[in-house]
């Protein structure tokens, strides 16, 4: 492959893959716990927190952004409780109200901010800036062995690599607790597997992954990756370890094919410019889910609760 | 509740135990609760329930819908918060003796589409035995298979749990409880929605477990089978209505009190074979 590839595409591709895998791994548990909405909520409410942090600190450093996102998450949790109690509405509705309000206020904040100082706008929030994460110093494959060139790789890459390691470690260490707590919370509680604590840890990891991925790839990918690869993986297998593996495969396929299609797809059909890589990656993950819905071997897996009573008698 | 003070209903032995009850509860009793009050919102679901489970009992917890039977169990195990009340398990705080209890929630409380095989679920019962940061080994799989054999499901070990009938799913839960090797088995409606063959299979395993010197508590709905299946009964309807051996506590009057007008007189006469 050409040296252009290393300079222009290698880093965005690697960052996209890392972000997709980190989110998909956690998404497996969110989907099975019927908490997909929480991944959605966390990545949305992070926006006003991140914008405020960027305004106050004047930089795009990840430190202030994480603090801002965490602050926003806490405010959101309190608001959700408040809306639920005072408004007397169901939790799902409370989440919906709070996340849209906070996200919208984040968009307004963004519009009113002087974006000349820092590069952050609504498009950035939704689609990230994957294509711009180029590696100027990486002029050939040999640069991968050159410490000087390596020093100039986009900071998003090591950041997401660390997040992916942390997410993998969290799932590996608390595997039994996560699985038992997801399947049967009351039983998990009775044997001391601490389902509430592990559930809280899961949400914290979701927030960390969402915020780390947000800067590089935007919230569209984050939301898509929490849901599409795990849902497609569920249709491929009836076992948890295999589902995790399939979700990683689908996340990687989405990132790679999405990136390539965004860059070259429009040229193939005669268009002159490429399209958003983040948007295309999310689209590909949805297409994969759509295909698997028709050909997945374990399609019986996802069905309504009514099927329980229809289960064949002995 | 005047009925609580009815001398006929109070087991003298339990009264004696009450007197020695201290911060450590009843050392002999598998599950001893006092002053248990639980509320969802403003309405109390359980109000000031005192109960000492006799050792080696085969106990039915009965009462009308919404009487707080499941809540009594969940609050005792710390799964739902209690407003007040002390609970001891074999004389110790529950958190210190979790390994001596096997709890089986209602079958409908979990999602059976979960990507797990029958064997996977039974191995969950070995959680404490396997230990933190470790995975199930051959030894654990063998033990889980033995438990499956006891409920007659060894040939279903590698099926996804959603492919089983309701009765088979309930037996998977029972096998998971057996894997826990507990001294006290607490089952929430083990016979709900199961076929007659499964009900016989489950009760025979539970009687085996009980005969081996373990205590079994079941939230139970079918009053007709109480005398046949159980040795002791606890009747609740927000408050405790009565408790004791089936022969003395499973009476006309107690059933009337517990169920109010919801049971026809004929039904009461039919169920309470040992009416006073």
Walk me through what this model shows:
The complex is a heterodimer of chains A (314) and B (276). With 314 residues, chain A is mostly helical. Chain A has a domain at 3-135 and 147-215: Orthogonal Bundle (ABC transporter involved in vitamin B12 uptake, BtuC). In chain A, 75% of the residues lie in helices and 0% in strands. In chain A, helix 2 runs parallel beside helix 4 (91-112), helix 2 crosses helix 10 and helix 3 (62-87) packs across helix 10 (195-234). Chain B has one domain (2-271): 3-Layer(aba) Sandwich (Rossmann fold), CATH 3.40.50.300. Chain B is globular. Chain B has a 6-stranded mixed sheet with strand order 5-6-7-3-8-9, with helices on both faces. Chain B has a 3-stranded antiparallel sheet with strand order 2-1-4, with helices on one face. Classes of the chains: A mainly alpha (314), B alpha/beta (276). The A-B interface holds A 32, 173, 175-176, 179-180, 182-184, 186-187, 189-193, 234, 237-240, 242-243, 298, 300-303, 307-309, 311-314 and B 74, 77-79, 95, 98, 101, 103-105, 108-117, 120-121, 124, 127-128, 130, 133, 135, 160, 162-168, 176, 180, 195, 197-198. Chain A: It comes from Pseudochelatococcus contaminans. Chain A: It is found in: Cell membrane.
Short précis:
The complex is a heterodimer of chains A (314) and B (276). Chain A has 314 residues and is mainly α.
Low-confidence stretches of chain B: 1-23
CATH topology grouping of chain B: Rossmann fold
CATH hierarchy, class of the domain at 3-135 and 147-215 in chain A: Mainly Alpha
Beta-strand fraction estimate of chain A: under 5%
The largest sheet of chain B has its strands arranged as: 5-6-7-3-8-9
């Amino acid at each position: 492959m050409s040296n252009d590839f290393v300079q222009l595409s290698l880093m965005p591709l690697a960052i996209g893959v890392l972000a997709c895998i980190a989110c998909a791994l956690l998404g497996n548990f969110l989907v099975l716990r019927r908490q997909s909405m929480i991944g959605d909520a966390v990545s949305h409410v992070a926006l006003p927190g991140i914008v405020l942090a960027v305004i106050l600190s004047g930089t795009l450093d990840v430190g202030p952004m994480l603090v801002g996102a965490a602050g926003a998450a806490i405010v959101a949790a309190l608001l959700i409780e408040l809306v639920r109690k005072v408004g007397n509405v169901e939790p799902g509705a409370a989440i919906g109200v709070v996340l849209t309000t906070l996200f919208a206020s984040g968009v307004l904040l963004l519009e009113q901010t002087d974006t000349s100082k820092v590069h952050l706008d609504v498009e950035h929030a939704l689609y990230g800036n994957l294509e711009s994460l180029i590696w100027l110093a990486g002029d050939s494959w040999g640069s991968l062995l050159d410490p000087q060139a390596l020093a100039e790789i986009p900071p998003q890459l090591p950041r997401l690599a660390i997040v992916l390691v942390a997410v993998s470690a969290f799932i590996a260490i608390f595997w039994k607790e996560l699985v038992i707590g997801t399947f049967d919370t009351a039983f998990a509680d009775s044997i001391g597997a601490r389902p509430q604590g592990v559930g809280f840890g899961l949400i914290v990891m979701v927030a960390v992954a969402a915020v780390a991925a947000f800067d590089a790839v935007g919230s569209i990918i984050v939301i898509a990756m929490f849901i599409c690869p795990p849902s497609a993986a569920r249709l491929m297998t009836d076992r948890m370890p295999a589902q995790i593996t399939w979700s990683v495969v689908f996340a990687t396929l989405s990132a790679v094919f999405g990136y390539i299609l965004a860059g070259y797809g429009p040229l193939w059909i005669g268009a002159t410019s490429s399209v958003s890589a983040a948007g295309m990656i999310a689209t590909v993950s949805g297409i994969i889910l759509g295909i698997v819905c028709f050909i997945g071997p374990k399609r019986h897996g996802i069905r309504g609760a009514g099927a329980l009573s229809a289960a064949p008698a002995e | 509740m005047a009925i609580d003070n009815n001398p006929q209903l109070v087991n003298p032995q339990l009264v004696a135990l009450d007197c020695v009850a201290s911060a450590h509860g009843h050392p002999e009793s598998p599950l001893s609760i006092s002053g248990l009050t639980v509320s969802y919102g403003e309405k109390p679901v359980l109000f000031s329930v005192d109960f000492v489970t006799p050792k080696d009992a085969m106990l039915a917890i009965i009462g009308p819908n919404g009487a707080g039977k499941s809540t009594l169990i969940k609050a005792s195990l710390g799964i739902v918060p209690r407003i007040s009340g002390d609970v001891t398990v074999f004389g110790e705080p529950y958190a210190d003796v979790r390994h001596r209890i096997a709890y089986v929630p209602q079958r409908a409380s979990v999602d059976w589409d979960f990507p797990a095989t029958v064997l996977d679920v039974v191995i969950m019962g070995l959680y404490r035995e396997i230990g933190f940061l470790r995975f199930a080994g051959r030894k654990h799989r063998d033990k889980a298979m033995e438990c499956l054999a006891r409920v007659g499901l060894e040939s279903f070990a590698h099926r996804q749990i959603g492919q089983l009938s309701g009765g088979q799913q309930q037996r998977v839960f029972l096998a998971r409880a057996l894997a826990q090797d507990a001294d006290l088995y607490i089952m929430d409606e083990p016979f709900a929605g199961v076929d007659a063959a499964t009900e016989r299979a489950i009760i025979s395993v539970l009687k085996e477990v009980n005969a081996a010197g373990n205590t079994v508590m079941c939230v139970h709905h079918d009053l007709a089978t109480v005398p046949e299946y159980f040795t002791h009964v606890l009747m609740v309807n927000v408050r405790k209505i009565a408790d004791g051996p089936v022969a003395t506590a499973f009476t006309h009057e107690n059933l009337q009190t517990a169920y109010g007008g919801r049971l026809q007189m004929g039904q009461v006469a039919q169920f309470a074979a040992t009416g006073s």
